[in-house]
Amino acid sequence: MTGVTKTLEKLLGVISAVVLFLMMIITTVDVFGRYVLNQPLPGGFEMTEMALAVLIYAALPLVSIRREHIVIDTLDTLMSPAVKAFFNKLSDVICCLALSGIGYLIFRRALRVAEYGDTTNVLKLPLAPVAYTMGVMISIAALTHLVLIFIPHREHGSLGPTTT
User: pTM here?
Assistant: First the structure.
């Protein structure tokens, strides 16, 4: 599992970094064009919107793998380790079910977007690839939580040691 986890973490990290870098380039070119040349980047808003969707959904499985979702641990000091373990498993079950349901709905939406041939307004870029990417990434996050149900939860960390 460690090899698959590390590979998935690296792949999702690279995807997220590349998309974020592209968003920086798009924004820089758009701002430069808007304020220096009085000519904004055509479709800059659309490209940023699509990149942001990919970035968010590519990072979701990464956050799940590392177990870095936002948690409120106010009552943790009052709970026994067994109760904490139960709630950790319960949260993974709930996340798996919720993300699976959302993934199903996103895939249904992606099929309609592809069927209708929806595109962006200015550049006429197809929206289906972005919708399918969102569905795939949220499904990976759901599968991650399914696997995490069977892996003991560490207090502060991921599935394995991470190196940065």
Answer: 0.85
